[in-house]
Design goal:
This protein is 72% helix and 2% strand. By secondary structure, the chain is mainly alpha-helical.
């Protein structure tokens, strides 16, 4: 009985098919994570890191990751309805922080507490209005253009808003008081050798409230159901009397509000500047990519993971390398899991 030999070419072809399959990519992705974890532990051991140090890095990463999650929600909202990757999202984050600082520093004859509340609400409303105006003046007139053209338009919008912000606020770094103390110095909570800033709880709590509000909005309101319908099938939604144009405007307004909230809650732990939106916007985009760009819960998890990974990575290496990790993750995901690390492969048709 003759045995059939397998040529090297056939072996290579079978190996390539395995690597390109979902199982092969999943194995490579998991293997990469295991290798990354081993490297982190090794580098941490070189700095004599113990459990408290890792816990501190993870908590600080969760604080930053929560901000990325809020920004990612704006990306997902606009993409689901319009199919556009809105790179102006970072500008909305910057506007939320800078407008809040300006309103708080205004000469309102009120105590600091009510003045801060008014400043935050006013910043959200103004930024939301700017988001709506941006959609009407830039996206709506070019609604029949190619997706690439629309994406380039959002890049131009970001550059324009950042330029206007430079003219208004200059290059100075501003500050917003911590929500707990209403002073520039925040309250710290010590759990053994782990330190948590009180503003972290405001960030986590605000995000939880926003997520609950979005869930109610999309499930229980007509506007939310209209957005969901357009996300599934624009043509069918139009036949049911839902205006995709209005839903696009609503999506941009909602994304601007989410960006403003992110900018406001992060302002007390950073010093807001006119160009702060670039880095935050790009990291929010990476978080949205991690979630597949179509799932809000996955985008939130992606943001939290991104915050933890980059903060732990910077902790065991050098702080100056923090921004590099986000883009390493982006490259890895685009190569092995372009549909998101939590999503199954699916084809999405935008009408």
């Amino acid at each position: 009985m003759a045995t059939q030999s397998v040529s090297p070419k056939q072996k290579n072809s079978a190996w390539q098919d395995f690597l390109q399959s979902d199982l092969g990519k999943r194995i490579i992705f998991i293997g990469s994570l295991v290798l990354l974890l081993a490297i982190v532990i090794y580098l941490g051991s070189q700095k004599n890191f113990k459990l408290p140090q890792y816990v501190q890095l993870i908590l600080d990463g969760l604080r930053g990751g929560t901000i990325y999650a809020l920004i990612a929600l704006g990306f997902v909202t606009v993409f689901n309805v319009t199919g556009i990757v809105n790179f102006a999202q970072g500008a909305f984050v910057m506007l939320g922080a800078m407008v809040a600082v300006t309103l708080f520093d205004s000469a309102l004859p009120l105590p600091d507490g009510p003045r801060l509340v008014i400043a935050c609400i006013g910043a959200i409303l103004i930024t939301t209005l700017i988001g709506v105006v941006v959609e009407r003046l830039t996206i709506y007139p070019a609604r029949n253009a190619s997706p690439l053209t629309l994406i380039i338009i959002t890049v131009g919008v970001y550059i324009a808003i950042q330029g206007i912000a430079l003219l208004i606020w200059g290059t100075d770094a501003y500050s917003l008081p911590a929500f707990t103390t209403l002073e520039m110095q925040d309250k710290t909570i010590r759990l053994g050798s782990v330190i948590i800033k009180a503003q972290s709880f405001w960030i986590w709590g605000t995000t939880a409230v926003v997520l609950a509000g979005l869930a109610y909005f999309f499930e229980r309101t007509m506007w939310g159901k209209g957005l969901r319908a357009c996300a599934v099938n624009k043509q069918a939604a139009r036949l049911m009397g839902i205006s995709p144009s209005r839903m696009s405007m609503l999506a941009f307004g909602l994304a601007a509000a989410l960006g403003a909230i992110a900018g406001i809650v992060v302002a007390p732990v950073t010093r807001p500047t006119y160009d702060m939106g670039l880095s935050l916007g790009l990291k929010g985009f990476v978080a949205a990519i991690m979630g597949g760009m179509v799932s809000a819960p996955a985008a939130v998890v992606g943001g939290l993971l991104l915050g933890v990974i980059e903060n732990v990575g910077a902790g065991v290496t050098k702080a100056g390398l923090k921004d590099i990790f986000a883009f390493i993750i982006l490259i890895v995901i685009l190569l092995f899991r372009p549909h998101g690390i939590f999503s199954k492969r699916q084809s999405t048709e935008k009408v």
